[in-house]
Design goal:
215 residues; alpha+beta; 42% helix
Length: 215
Protein backbone atom coordinates (compact mmCIF):
# COMPACT_ATOMS: atom_id res chain seq x y z
CA UNK A 1 0.00 0.00 0.00
CA UNK A 2 1.05 3.60 -0.50
CA UNK A 3 0.31 6.70 1.52
CA UNK A 4 -0.60 10.03 -0.06
CA UNK A 5 0.43 13.23 1.70
CA UNK A 6 -0.59 15.55 -1.15
CA UNK A 7 -1.08 15.42 -4.91
CA UNK A 8 2.67 15.38 -5.40
CA UNK A 9 4.02 13.71 -2.24
CA UNK A 10 3.64 10.09 -1.20
CA UNK A 11 5.54 7.39 0.64
CA UNK A 12 5.62 3.69 1.38
CA UNK A 13 7.15 1.67 4.19
CA UNK A 14 9.80 -0.96 3.47
CA UNK A 15 10.65 -2.52 6.80
CA UNK A 16 10.85 0.28 9.32
CA UNK A 17 12.02 2.90 6.81
CA UNK A 18 9.88 5.24 4.75
CA UNK A 19 10.67 5.81 1.08
CA UNK A 20 9.44 9.27 0.07
CA UNK A 21 8.48 10.40 -3.44
CA UNK A 22 8.22 14.08 -4.37
CA UNK A 23 6.78 14.32 -7.89
CA UNK A 24 7.29 18.07 -8.07
CA UNK A 25 11.02 17.65 -7.51
CA UNK A 26 11.14 14.29 -9.31
CA UNK A 27 13.02 12.84 -6.36
CA UNK A 28 12.99 9.72 -4.18
CA UNK A 29 14.42 9.72 -0.66
CA UNK A 30 14.97 7.07 1.97
CA UNK A 31 14.08 8.80 5.20
CA UNK A 32 15.78 8.57 8.56
CA UNK A 33 14.52 6.62 11.54
CA UNK A 34 12.66 9.51 13.21
CA UNK A 35 10.92 10.78 10.05
CA UNK A 36 9.95 7.22 9.14
CA UNK A 37 8.50 6.56 12.60
CA UNK A 38 6.39 9.75 12.58
CA UNK A 39 5.04 9.10 9.08
CA UNK A 40 4.22 5.52 10.06
CA UNK A 41 2.24 6.80 13.05
CA UNK A 42 0.31 9.21 10.81
CA UNK A 43 -0.36 6.47 8.26
CA UNK A 44 -1.89 4.34 11.03
CA UNK A 45 -4.06 7.31 12.05
CA UNK A 46 -2.32 7.79 15.37
CA UNK A 47 -2.05 11.29 16.74
CA UNK A 48 1.41 12.78 16.90
CA UNK A 49 2.71 15.79 18.75
CA UNK A 50 2.90 19.27 17.30
CA UNK A 51 6.66 19.02 17.69
CA UNK A 52 6.76 15.92 15.49
CA UNK A 53 4.55 17.55 12.85
CA UNK A 54 6.86 20.56 12.83
CA UNK A 55 9.83 18.20 12.48
CA UNK A 56 8.33 16.84 9.23
CA UNK A 57 7.28 20.27 7.98
CA UNK A 58 10.75 21.72 8.52
CA UNK A 59 12.07 18.99 6.22
CA UNK A 60 9.39 19.58 3.55
CA UNK A 61 7.91 16.13 4.26
CA UNK A 62 4.52 17.51 5.26
CA UNK A 63 2.74 20.65 3.98
CA UNK A 64 2.45 23.49 6.47
CA UNK A 65 -1.34 23.31 6.21
CA UNK A 66 -1.45 19.77 7.62
CA UNK A 67 -2.50 19.48 11.23
CA UNK A 68 -2.68 16.68 13.77
CA UNK A 69 -6.27 15.97 12.80
CA UNK A 70 -5.54 15.78 9.06
CA UNK A 71 -4.62 12.23 8.24
CA UNK A 72 -2.62 10.84 5.40
CA UNK A 73 -4.66 8.99 2.78
CA UNK A 74 -3.78 5.33 2.37
CA UNK A 75 -4.33 3.68 -1.01
CA UNK A 76 -4.41 -0.10 -0.92
CA UNK A 77 -3.72 -1.37 -4.42
CA UNK A 78 -4.83 -4.69 -5.86
CA UNK A 79 -2.10 -7.36 -5.51
CA UNK A 80 -1.49 -8.63 -9.03
CA UNK A 81 -2.40 -12.21 -9.84
CA UNK A 82 -1.95 -12.36 -13.61
CA UNK A 83 -0.25 -10.61 -16.51
CA UNK A 84 -1.35 -10.13 -20.10
CA UNK A 85 2.03 -8.70 -21.14
CA UNK A 86 3.14 -11.66 -23.26
CA UNK A 87 -0.01 -11.71 -25.38
CA UNK A 88 1.06 -10.76 -28.89
CA UNK A 89 -0.97 -9.10 -31.62
CA UNK A 90 0.36 -7.48 -34.75
CA UNK A 91 -0.68 -3.81 -34.69
CA UNK A 92 -2.37 -2.58 -37.87
CA UNK A 93 -1.55 0.74 -39.48
CA UNK A 94 -4.29 2.68 -37.68
CA UNK A 95 -3.47 1.13 -34.30
CA UNK A 96 0.24 1.80 -34.81
CA UNK A 97 -0.42 5.46 -35.58
CA UNK A 98 -2.63 5.82 -32.51
CA UNK A 99 -0.04 4.15 -30.28
CA UNK A 100 2.80 6.27 -31.60
CA UNK A 101 0.69 9.39 -31.13
CA UNK A 102 0.11 8.52 -27.45
CA UNK A 103 3.80 7.82 -27.08
CA UNK A 104 4.75 11.17 -28.61
CA UNK A 105 2.22 13.11 -26.50
CA UNK A 106 3.42 11.42 -23.32
CA UNK A 107 7.07 12.03 -24.18
CA UNK A 108 6.30 15.72 -24.83
CA UNK A 109 4.46 16.01 -21.49
CA UNK A 110 7.37 14.45 -19.61
CA UNK A 111 9.91 16.74 -21.26
CA UNK A 112 7.90 19.93 -20.76
CA UNK A 113 6.25 19.31 -17.40
CA UNK A 114 8.10 16.40 -15.84
CA UNK A 115 6.59 13.43 -14.08
CA UNK A 116 4.24 15.63 -12.01
CA UNK A 117 2.44 16.97 -15.08
CA UNK A 118 2.29 13.51 -16.67
CA UNK A 119 0.76 11.95 -13.54
CA UNK A 120 -1.66 14.86 -13.15
CA UNK A 121 -2.81 14.23 -16.72
CA UNK A 122 -3.66 10.64 -15.77
CA UNK A 123 -5.53 11.84 -12.66
CA UNK A 124 -7.55 14.36 -14.66
CA UNK A 125 -8.46 11.81 -17.30
CA UNK A 126 -9.62 9.34 -14.64
CA UNK A 127 -11.68 11.94 -12.80
CA UNK A 128 -13.43 13.20 -15.93
CA UNK A 129 -14.19 9.82 -17.49
CA UNK A 130 -15.96 6.84 -15.99
CA UNK A 131 -14.24 3.71 -17.20
CA UNK A 132 -16.63 1.05 -18.47
CA UNK A 133 -15.95 -2.65 -18.99
CA UNK A 134 -14.43 -2.71 -22.45
CA UNK A 135 -13.48 -5.54 -24.75
CA UNK A 136 -10.85 -3.23 -26.19
CA UNK A 137 -8.48 -3.58 -23.23
CA UNK A 138 -6.85 -6.84 -24.34
CA UNK A 139 -6.57 -5.71 -27.95
CA UNK A 140 -5.07 -2.33 -27.07
CA UNK A 141 -2.54 -3.82 -24.63
CA UNK A 142 -1.44 -6.68 -26.90
CA UNK A 143 -0.89 -4.40 -29.87
CA UNK A 144 0.60 -1.57 -27.84
CA UNK A 145 3.09 -3.79 -26.01
CA UNK A 146 4.06 -5.52 -29.25
CA UNK A 147 4.69 -2.18 -30.93
CA UNK A 148 6.74 -0.94 -27.97
CA UNK A 149 9.11 -3.88 -28.43
CA UNK A 150 9.52 -2.98 -32.09
CA UNK A 151 10.30 0.69 -31.46
CA UNK A 152 12.61 0.01 -28.53
CA UNK A 153 10.54 1.53 -25.72
CA UNK A 154 9.94 -1.68 -23.77
CA UNK A 155 12.67 -0.96 -21.22
CA UNK A 156 11.51 2.62 -20.58
CA UNK A 157 8.85 1.72 -18.05
CA UNK A 158 7.68 5.24 -17.18
CA UNK A 159 7.09 6.37 -20.76
CA UNK A 160 5.60 2.99 -21.71
CA UNK A 161 3.20 2.86 -18.75
CA UNK A 162 2.07 6.49 -18.89
CA UNK A 163 1.32 6.24 -22.61
CA UNK A 164 -0.57 2.95 -22.22
CA UNK A 165 -2.59 4.19 -19.24
CA UNK A 166 -3.48 7.40 -21.07
CA UNK A 167 -4.66 5.49 -24.14
CA UNK A 168 -6.68 2.93 -22.17
CA UNK A 169 -8.44 5.60 -20.10
CA UNK A 170 -9.26 7.69 -23.15
CA UNK A 171 -10.69 4.53 -24.76
CA UNK A 172 -13.03 3.96 -21.80
CA UNK A 173 -11.02 1.08 -20.36
CA UNK A 174 -10.02 0.53 -16.76
CA UNK A 175 -6.38 1.34 -15.97
CA UNK A 176 -4.42 2.10 -12.80
CA UNK A 177 -0.88 3.48 -12.85
CA UNK A 178 1.58 2.10 -10.29
CA UNK A 179 5.02 3.36 -9.31
CA UNK A 180 6.95 1.04 -7.03
CA UNK A 181 10.32 1.05 -5.31
CA UNK A 182 12.76 -1.45 -3.89
CA UNK A 183 15.95 -1.04 -1.85
CA UNK A 184 19.38 -2.69 -1.61
CA UNK A 185 20.01 -1.47 -4.21
CA UNK A 186 17.44 1.25 -4.70
CA UNK A 187 15.39 1.03 -7.89
CA UNK A 188 12.03 2.36 -9.09
CA UNK A 189 9.64 0.85 -11.62
CA UNK A 190 6.33 1.81 -13.23
CA UNK A 191 3.54 -0.39 -14.55
CA UNK A 192 -0.19 -0.46 -15.40
CA UNK A 193 -2.85 -2.72 -13.92
CA UNK A 194 -6.53 -3.40 -14.48
CA UNK A 195 -7.79 -4.74 -11.17
CA UNK A 196 -5.40 -7.66 -10.46
CA UNK A 197 -4.03 -8.06 -13.99
CA UNK A 198 -0.75 -6.41 -14.96
CA UNK A 199 -1.04 -4.95 -18.45
CA UNK A 200 2.41 -3.53 -19.17
CA UNK A 201 4.84 -6.01 -17.63
CA UNK A 202 5.43 -9.53 -16.35
CA UNK A 203 4.52 -10.55 -12.80
CA UNK A 204 8.08 -11.55 -11.92
CA UNK A 205 9.35 -8.15 -13.09
CA UNK A 206 7.19 -6.17 -10.67
CA UNK A 207 7.31 -8.63 -7.75
CA UNK A 208 10.25 -6.93 -5.95
CA UNK A 209 8.58 -3.50 -5.93
CA UNK A 210 6.46 -1.95 -3.18
CA UNK A 211 3.91 0.59 -4.52
CA UNK A 212 4.77 4.17 -3.55
CA UNK A 213 2.17 5.81 -5.81
CA UNK A 214 -1.12 4.46 -7.18
CA UNK A 215 -3.17 6.59 -9.57
Amino acid sequence: MCHLISQHQSFCMIGDRAIFLDLERDRYSQLGTKSSAILSELAHRHRVSAHDLEFLQDRSLLPKAKSGSTWIETVDGSPPEASSFDEYARPGANMSMMALRQLALTSYTLKRGGILRAVDSIRQTKSSRHAQPSGETDAICAKFNSLMRLVGVEGRCLLHSLALARWLLRSGCDATLYIGVTTRPFAAHCWVQSDRTVLSDRLERIAPYTPILIV
